[in-house]
């Protein structure tokens, strides 16, 4: 006969009498008499030990069902905070990692006749008694961690356990939920847990949880301060003060124009905060921290454990650094990140990876066959070099952030070779500049323009060109047509797959282009040096003529 029991994950076979010497996993005595066992795992337990404990119970101190378990490690009871030294204990059936003594789990809820002076509450093992007004000066509330004397509700009734120094407002006890469903921070149900064996970091504010109480989702390993979980949300129409993980202090709604000071900027969108847009600011002394209410809604509700394809090795967190003059750099667009604004940063202390909030929303979407990652189209970047042509990229660069590879959109093998555009009557052909003087020009003052936007362009980038009209346009001015026509180039794919092109070979192409550029620059330098010698000869001749003319003037011009 076999039974399925919560105490073990395999079926247990009934054993009338076992011949070999084995210990019971429940009482640790020699196995004798009727028992159950799993031969595969070597797990055996007396039938009497199994029958002595209920398989599943419901405790006053925890909202989830609890199942019986045998001790395999040293554990703490989450109710009385003492070591569990008995062989049996109860553990949460779900994913809360909540464990407790058998006697603590079975402790009944006590309803006291003098409810005005003694209350049993699920947050604490012992009864909570009404605190005398003379003792309130030494009371620290266990939830808000503030002294009773400075609390706004110091006049409210306070209950506590003087032995454990555990105190609660009566109003808190009445409204304190065992679990939070559909919470703004996390989609799973958050369970209240009292615990003792380790401190967690709050996944909302990032600070350590030291109060022995938290709201937790065991399945997602998410933990929140009680005060962070219960703090008023921005969704409330009457919320004048809120808490957000992006800042260690509470944020207060700006009530009058004078609080804005001299055109402060929102730490999320970097736009100027105006009186017409509801804004929260640091309630203490952080003068630079302003956050639009609309930006608050758009931000995530927790600060850590963000995964992003730009940085697959580590997790990212949203950070708000103290004000200083240090400018960080975004690893996607290479633009600076002002330290007063929010940004995504790598959680690893030795890793300096950072992202703008808006760059975090960029998504990789363009395939470069032979490369393991998708490429992201960035509109503008500081000067980076194309790995295919060796020319600087400024506008519309395809970038692989993890591998630090940059490619002009027009250098992509699948970029269309011929397009039609409303700006010109004839078809336009993708080509390098047809004018030798453009390609050979290294003078900074030389300027070359796009015929569509009439702005300066880089003369060494590929262009779309009409030979009949000598019409030139940059790729950025015909971007929609180019993107709509980018498709797979089968011949290029076969070549890439055949040759197994890798990141190193892409860099090889880059080296080859740089070598060609070096040769051209060397030739240009030789030309300039030759011109300098020629000009120096002319300069010497002119200098001699000046001296001769000066001497003649001295001879024929009377002195005085």
UniProtKB/TrEMBL annotation:
Residues 511-552 form a coiled coil. Signal peptide: none annotated. Residues 8-49, 122-173, 186-229, 309-359, 422-478 form the DC1 domain. Keywords: Coiled coil, Repeat. This is DC1 domain-containing protein. It comes from Gossypium darwinii.
